[in-house]
Amino acid sequence: MSSVEEIIRVGKGEDLADLVIKNAKLVNVLSEEIYDTDIAIIDDRIAGVAKGYKGKTEIDVKGAYVTPSFIDGHVHLESSMLMPSEFAKLVLASGTTTVIADPHEISNVMGLQGISFMREATKNLPLDVYMMLPSCVPATSLETSGVELNSYDLALLIDAPWVLGIAEMMNFSGVVNCDGSVLSKIKLGLEKQKRVDGHAPHLCGKDLDAYIASGVSSDHECTTPDEAIEKLRLGMYLMVREATGARDLEPLIPVLKKYNTRKCMFVTDDRHPKHLIRHISRMVKKAVRLGVDPIKAIQMASINTAEYFNLQNVGAIAPGYKADIAVFSDLKTFEPVLVFKNGKMIAKDGKVTVDLAEMKPPALRGSVNIKYLYREDLHIKIPDENQKIKVINVIPKQLITKMTLEQPKNENGLAVSDTENDILKIAVIERHRATGNIGLGFVKGFGLKSGAIASTVAHDSHNMIVIGTNDEDMYYAAVELVKSQGGKIIVENGKTLAHLPLPIAGLMSDKTSEEVMEKIAELEAASRKIGCKIPDPFMSMAFLSLSVIPELKITDKGLIDVNKFEITNLFAD
Predict the structure, then answer these.
(1) Domain containing 44 — which CATH number?
(2) Which tens digits make up the pLDDT trace of 255-312?
(3) Model confidence, pTM
(4) Which residues pair with 214 in a beta bridge?
(5) Kindly report the CA angle at 211 between 458 and 180, in degrees rounded to 5?
(6) Is residue 242 part of a domain?
């Protein structure tokens, strides 16, 4: 680390810089302008931004656009199904050098041990990984998680410099109804002068005022302009999400084109590996293509996020700032030709140029522990042949679902999958404590004609979730996932068509990103073979157990009416 005196001498031009980026078109996110200049760097800091600097190493970018590198304001690393080193390999090359991670998924399985695991797996990467402490483990009392984390547990980590606050407060009902255990977590973050992120889909009016007044200051669940505008007007920071399963950028473009964007930032939330290759840079490109001013789009990918999280001297190119820099040939494609982290080149032409040291993670216990399962456990008896069933209806590219009442297909007094009408049986099997809990219901929108799909990735408690056309294949799929201690699988007629084992907490693979993507491609091909009409069925399926997003969901405790925040009967009254 260079001394202040050394930085000053380089800034004055008296000493050689370690690196000078020459002939740059600087995209200045502080003054909102673009101009020609040189950038002098010493160690990991920018010493000066002016013409004429000399350096031990000089890189002439010949009029290319130079921007601060990008920051992802909210991401669950586990959702990539990759170890953090493999995640870093994909996002660094696209210009992302900082992420704010919420280890919510692994925490629901492993608790504080899961957070510690993620910290150990990220602390030596050439990617800055800050964390927000999960606020909702479990997300609600309507499901069974591996552990429960209260404010006393979170207090053990809140003072760590790599912890920036309390992660998405999904239990907005608990907030507005003054639940003491919920408010204690918010108070913990505020007392330490750290951020409290929000999660409040469709919350509006006075309840939204109350939620914000509690100290929650951001939200990444806006899907319509009206919702986004209301939250911006009330002082909330708007996290614009472009995940694998929920893509909200395009619907919110009218807001980003018309309103002040300095309280807006880009986040990816949950992404599969193939969507990490362009990461935040793809969001910037898409926003610009849809009419957002390029400088404002770059602000949303850098300085806005840094300022929200109180990251000092991060997110801009100016004296004293960290030398985290991306170089683009134009402001249309947003494919970086060079990426610098802490003043060192880490990627060139879309390829990482530094060795990501192999990380040997600390050992984790097995996490797929289910009570002995019988085929009969998946049976659904029809109490009255005139009663209709409540069916979960999937909405493409949305986490929100709708409920319809349908006539069940009756076989010998049992409600079974009805492939002709696309009404498939769904089961959520508790996999942490071997309680024997199994939630059973029906879902519409997947289109399976045969077989079954199953996964141990199911937000937020990550119990085993299975959708199938028959009980035999559903049972087989569940047993196979127990054997592999987690994963994603597609079966047909008692045979495995494709299988991605996820032995790390039932969420992540210990294989390379290339190997994981190959397995994902096999899963996608197999899903099409059995008739699935959703492009990414596992991502859609994973959120069907998320009991904080309307309208109808399912957990190991049964069918959930999210609007009423209660367990509801499968059969209508």
Answers:
(1) 2.30.40.10
(2) 999 999 999 999 999 898 989 988 999 999 999 999 999 999 999 999 999 999 999 9
(3) 0.91
(4) none
(5) 80
(6) yes
